[in-house]
## 1
Amino acid sequence: MEQDYLLSAKNVDKSFTSDNGKQKVLDDISINVSAGEFVCLIGPSGCGKSTLLRLFSGLMKSDRGSIKIKTGAKLSFVFQNFGLFPWLTVEQNIGFGLKMNGESKEYIDKEVRKRIIQMGLDGFEAKHPKELSGGMKQRVGIARALSVKPDILFLDEPFSALDTFTAEKLRQDLLNIWHDSKLTIVMVSHLVEETVELANRVIVFSSKPGRVEKELEIKLSRPRNKRSTEFFKYVDVLSDLVQ
Amino acid sequence: MRYSNQLRFSKRKNVLKNKKKSSLISVAWILLFLIALTTVVNFSKLNALTFFEGFGVSLARISIAYIIALILSCIIALLITSNEKVENLTLPVFDVLQSFPSFALFPLMVASINSSEVIIISVLIIAIIWPILFTIIGGIKNRREDLEEAATIFGAKGFKRLIYFTYPELSPSIVTGSIVGWGEAWEFIIGAELLVNAKVGIGSYLGQLGNNKENLLLVFGILVLMILLFIINKLIWLPLLDKTTKYQSES
């Protein structure tokens, strides 16, 4: 049964030691994600959702429990503050992962070109991150994440550093990418409406320590109408759960 | 759309114009200083051959010391920051060592090392390693966590990580520290050459002039040295600093 999941976490604990002593941020987390799902993790700040994403992607190690990712599945990550290398151009940033994987120059050029067109970055190839607006930076961040052809894409509050209009446009783009590819997405968010707009399934966290409070499937057809009564019902239910 | 295009275009034109202007100005400065240099050398009866031979030898000594100090700094900085316990133990030690005057080691070196070249270069290394080492450590401490994570996610490991990630990430601190270290090296080499009685070297030459009470020549000599160092700064260090810090601060 377990092999069917692309990502599966079981009884995961994580603590951090600070000056105030040891603090548990994640307590007994068990989550399963199937291929092709769009899962959102939501919860108040300090509930450890970003930490969980880092455990999933191997950036951190859990204290207890197991995290299993289907063998051979490739991971990628989109950061809240973009995480672009300031000394590299847009092109070089997008191709960084491919270069590290030892791909040929021809392949990298072709792949980067494809992502530049896909993310609407045409004409910005030679710019450095400093010269881009926030929205453009996150486009580069997403293009870089996609260039390695991941099976699972982790996004850590990817739109919270952006203004509302830019964020909305990028959300639509992300949905299109998810729709057109067989990508599995796990995204951390703190906006209820955003999760209802995007996810198949929302996992609600309580805070200090972070625990899975509830899982909610969003059974709305796509494209979703953000003005419909059903949409608001989900928003209401989730808003009550997130405290 | 048209307006924004226009704006973008004019902005770019301005940037290009400014770039051209600033490089023209620096070329003009250097030319001016070269003219001043030849005039000073011509009119002062400064022995140009001895002077430039001395300068060249000193420059070579400093370059060797600088390269060794730079490599050592990078290795030490990466080693002690790789482990928090090691860092907490060694940083205070380095802090104390840093304040130790490098010339105080001089008698010990003279007693134990035969070659005056080795003594000079060792003193230089000890003097200039600190600014380089501490700025690199500072750079490592101020690393952006999300960049580290991005490098890890996108597969930067081992040697490749060092070349394509760590080096460009730290190059602003490396260059900043180098500029300070390089400046200090010129301060120290004069003393070091005088103390070991080196036959050639800018310090030995200026020392000779001082001993012979040729004060006017000494002033001219110092002036020429200043001009040469200015040119090195303008041609090498400032462009390097500009190149490495240009895109670093993200708005």
## 2
Amino acid sequence: MNGPQDIGGMQGFGPIPIEADEPLFHAAWERRALGLTVAMGASGMWNIDTSRHARESLPPAEYYASSYYEIWTKGVERLVTRLGLVSEAELKAGAALEAPAPIKRVLKASEVEAALKRGSPTDREPSQSARFQVGDAVTTRVMNPVGHTRLPRYARGKSGVVEMVHGAHVFPDTNAHGDGEQPQWLYNVRFSGRELWGEEADADLIVSIDAWESYLEPA
Amino acid sequence: MDHHDHHHHHDHGHAHDHGSELSPMDLRVRALESILVEKGYVDPAAIDAIVETYETRVGPRNGARVVARAWSDPTFREWLLRDATAAIASLGFTGRQGEHMVAVENARDEHHMVVCTLCSCYPWTVLGLPPVWYKSAPYRSRAVIDPRGVLAEFGVTLPETTRIRVWDSTAEIRYLVVPMRPEGTDGWSEEALADLVTRDSMIGTGLVLEPGNVAGRGASS
């Protein structure tokens, strides 16, 4: 979706907030927000694409006014209420008021190290051969899906060159919405700065994105 | 702090005299955690273990070891550039937000910089959790359109002849920049070399430290 998360090329956000000796967390609650987001992510009740989509579905004004871990927290709140794990009344009360709903798994402390070391690889056995090879000229589709996508607006309808073939990976556009992993070939595609931004861009600039096969057409 | 309320309680280690010291977000996250724990969805000890992992074990020193090895061992360097996931795993760094790695190597005529314009994708296994600036709208929005301006804010000026390549992490591939090995480090141990490798040099918004700026290090240390 053309949501508030898709900000590549936007202007006016001001200087970059660079901090010397930046702490890992800026408030104690940020630790808990990180931990509970990762722990709930291991519940098997949603995947990373669902989770990203929940965050980017925040209304734009709210998204931009929220800090990073605030967005994460609001994302988890949206997911647990949508799935019926927690009610709005419970969030309001700050306490459990209803019996728990069934959950696929609960990550135990003793399992954390192994789970983090394992991660969640997204590569899958391809069901067909790759349509493109390194060096192929491609054009990204012009598309404005209302659901989740990982093709940023600044790179739609642009001509580039396949730089890498990453193998087949889970397709976020379907996986975010319960429509299955539907793996597709994933490519790194490079664009010239001028193709993306016009004649005033740095003549040598190259910007690359990772793009699933259905985002691309032969140029 | 200037206390206006002389009746505040000294026995509260956390007491402030401006009402509750808990911010709205503190209250909100506490509420969410207690609901999830009460309902049995989350083990609070698992939250502790997750936080502890990134506070104490997984951080940019991992990435610095990868870079130092690549600088020292041509076979490892070649492996890293060909199959970063496997090469990095051989040093024990695997898992969440580093499942699929690609290493890109800086050269005199080419400088790499990594961003995630759509969220905050970052190679946790080798760099730990991302800093606030990496996740911020100013960096995410401008890195792809004005990387030289972004670098200037970090105090980095590259020669006009150095091409900039920006990698926008739009999938689950995570990019690690291998910075250039500085002159004057011949014969340095991997450990000494790793001390030159800053976090930002592996994102591409910084350069490595110059050997003269690292105290007490030298040849074959």
## 3
Amino acid sequence: MTPTAQFWLLIVALGIGTWSMRSWPIILHGRVPHPPWLVRLLKHVPVAALTALVVPGALYLHRGIAYSFAPARTIAAVAALIVAVRTKNVLATLGVGMGVLWLAQMALTALG
Amino acid sequence: MQNSGRAPRTRHSLLTGILGVLPILVGVVPFGMVAGAAVRQAGFGVVESIGMSVVVFAGASQIAATTLLGGGAPLWVALGTALVINARMFIYGVSIAPLLSDAPGWLRPILGYMLVDQNYASTMTDGRFRDDVDIVWYYFGGGASLWIVWQISSVAGALLGPFIPTSWGLEFAVPLVFLAMLAPSLKDGTAIGVAVVTGVAAAIFVPLMPLQSGLIVAILVGMAYGAWSDRPKPDEAS
């Protein structure tokens, strides 16, 4: 199989698999029971999922499977967290986070 | 009389959903560009990058699958990794399904296709607290906006990506946007506890566990902590 054919196979298989995981709970809703313990667990999905999406990117750089601590990112993420809590504004958080990242990268490079 | 006012309400809901994701779109653009550029870096063309973004429509998994296959990993490893990364969407689906239960059967497969981190977060942290919108159309408006911006920026990334220096760190915009969406949800002790527990678990497990499966473990640990923290006390159990 050529690399391009392999890539298309990957696209189709990943597309079907991803669509299934996202869609079946929505399609079948109402036909599957929601016991109270499940409701209690699901209540916390938004906070848990968003945190899990933030933390690795705020602490580490990763290339392939190798993770390395990235202090500039951590400094920038802390600054962005303060702005996010204070302003609740996505654009302000993004602006301060990226600005501090660039400053911290320059400062850390200068310090050697 | 029953029908009067329904179309304006649908339009208002769509518009509110679009406005809800508007600031998030700023973070989607660099993310989409990285996903598009990754396809070129892996040695494939612009058509393949469009195919990937349209068929899969799930950023982190697209980047992982593309870079793994391009780096010589077997097809099943690339596929398995990407599916593990997307397994959190099953949890999103179970969590958001009650809100979308008014949607007709024909619409549900499309709503499922639109279930990405940003649309889930916008609906769960903003849309569901508004009583002036139909949540299904709010969600649809956000999903459609994200889809359009994702496709445009991933094509732009496939075309321009090779010229953007990695030292700009543009992909850092992605966690920053999630951070901004997280902050308003941290309004009580339980929520802060869930964030701390999940954050520590993610910091430990994501680098240690294979195939980014640490992400799901961290989410499950945080959910379990939250449910335990909210458990019915013996004297108020019903």
## 4
Amino acid sequence: MSRRIHLAAHFPGVNNATVWTDPTAGSQIDFSSFEYFARNAERGLFDYLFLAEGLRLREHRGRIHDLDVLGRPNTLAILAALAGVTENIGLVGTLSTTFNEPYELARQLATLDHLSNGRAGWNAVTSSDAFHGANFRRGGFLDHGDRYRRAAEFAELSKRLWASWRDDAILADADTGEFLRRDAIEQVAHRSDLFDIDARFDVPRSPQHRPLIVQAGDSADGRDFATAHADVIFSLHTEFEDAQEFYRDVKGRLAAVGRQEDDLKILPAASFVLGDTLEEARERSREIALAQVRPETAITYLEQVWNRDFSGYDPDGPLPDVEPDTGAESAQGFANRHAAVRSRIAKLREVAEAEKLSIRDLIIRLTANHTFVGTPDQVAADIDRYVQERATDGFTVVGHLTPHGLDEFTDKVIPLLQERGTYRTSYEDGATLRETLGVAGERAAVGV
Amino acid sequence: MTEKVHIAVALDGAGWHPAAWREPTARPTELTTAGYWRDLVRAADDAGVVFATIEDALTLEGRTAEPDAGIRRDRVRGRLDALLVASFLAPLTRRIGLVPTVTTTHPEPFHLATGLQTLDHASLGRAGARIVAGSSPQERANFGRRGDGPDGFPASGRVEDDPAWQAAFREAGEVVDVIRRLADSWEDDAIIRDVESGRFLDRERVHNADFEGEFFSITGASIVPRSPQGQPLITALAHQSIPYRFAAEHADVVFVTPRSADEAAAIIAEVEQAAAEVRDEPERLRVFADLLVLIEETEAAALEAWNRLEERAPIATDAHIVIGTAATIVDELRTLAAAGVDGIRLRPARLPADLSAITEQVIPVARAAGILHDDDVSPTLRQRLGLPRRSSRFVAQEVSA
């Protein structure tokens, strides 16, 4: 039997992949852009809308980066607003486990699940650096191991808080005056070196019981977290064999924790360029790549790696033949940072020399390499092949224009996927996000 | 000339009376549904209510003073995050201001600020916040992050007698500072989309907050570009001198709880005195009086309904209670207007019943009596209250430099 394709719609981000110089590009912040994007994604029957998170404006050499789209909404607030103007599509936001607290984030996600009638999801990420920390009470920095320990305990605590109200907790018996049933709410206590919580949750159990959990990390720690907690992995593995290997590795871990293959979906990020012929699609892909990587974008990219001023270099020329500036030797972590930067530069040189690429073409190769390029038929066939041959369960699709970047995909590719019989032709009435995605909930498992 | 007032409403659960959920008109199993909040706030919007505040607390028992609140089963329990409820309502309403309650001890000020800016974008300029200082021991146990904070009210009932409460108000002041600074951090015209030079924004017009306070520090600019109102409307409820000073220093609107017209005049004088000492905001602090209301077709029916509620659960409230017909309420409004308040925030005893009475009876009667500000078409909440939109503080700095 053929496998079903699942698709997420990624609102274009604040990086060079989002082309703002196009005359049709709209606002990245007006609510009308988000409403337009969400309604179009719902028209395309996407499983969910996906939003990244902003914790601090990007900087370049100590100043705010001014070449790319910048500025975006608060993730939770914009998703709550979109819940009011959509009916069926899931609403998934990226939210840090480092700069939030479990009680508050769990109640916000449960609120979103109530307001959307069961369509809330959380892409749980960890944050590591003092740069972002400078905007938060907590501040500072957690090393890699502690970040993931905190993320795992955070997720576990969130699940316990969401499950702490019985399904039938609210009796609301006007005659007897009992609003709550006896023993309706379980106390959630947890003490470790990271948390010391003795909580009574204040949000009744939400339609999904547990909002969907998405996770993007690819390290061994990230894969362990996903195996234990996630319903979807937002991976970067899009090259076919590599994706199959990732699929086998991650899905292979599930049995040990009593989960099925379908309980964890893998939806890597994917871009696309369509044309009436393959040739035309390739030409468009090249044009879009040149808009995504303008000469100044390419130079800026190198400046970030080298931490040097390259304004005098020709973007159509070869890589600069100079050493990076990795800061003062006395600074803490200097040796590691120095080695990491040098190894990154060695890789850049290797690719540039092997393929004889200019600076700009190298950066295009690295940041504007579109996943699917072809006719709508070819792209639909490719996507279907990835899913049928167990390289992915679908994709998190991103366009290069705000807010209409997925219109063409919806108009041209979705009908072809439907013709192949592997993509839905309607939402199920009143389905939760978990039901739409086909990932098991915990309705049966939690103690009622 | 008749003094005119604005009418706002305060929404919480099944209403402000603890037995309200037991009324036949109540919807006690729907208090955390989208439909419940949509119905309430749309009705208020259609009637011309200037803004709705939405209560919130980070504990199961809320902000009650009942000693056994934690174990009671006869009170409404369970709520939604107010800022997200307001965000949800933004595209579903047209003119009403949306003023969620935000607490200031545990949430990250950066998230609060960007959440309010996003509410302002989504509502096209109708965002506000009711700022609450302090935390309870249960709230601290829920978060488990800090042990410091007030342990109930001091025996005197006066927050100035408790250093922990004084600190809580200083911290709340820092949170408001940061909300305003971050709201100003992008100038209105920071986004230039200059294809020629390849620059999306003019980074000279985006400014780091660079805030260093007693309780936290925040370095960067907001992630959210400047919103339609510039800054959200800041409101606070206050009953005594430290909170009055807090409101005078930081708020645009203060909610007060006079029991009579004389008391209202005295409170206004005290607030104005505090403002003269501590206020830097260029606009006059607006004063709204809170009234808890129960409304029926006749005085007798209203009294009967009130007695029914009181038999089930006697109320303890800070606000003056008015029980009667729409005409009774309008008389109170006229009296308070004459005493000099800018507006009245009505707390319906029962939801949705008393909100329906407000929108269908009180407002039409008050409008006919000429005591309401014109139901104008100003696009933003601040403008409806007569507060002009100001440009970012950072623009002013450049001009004076």
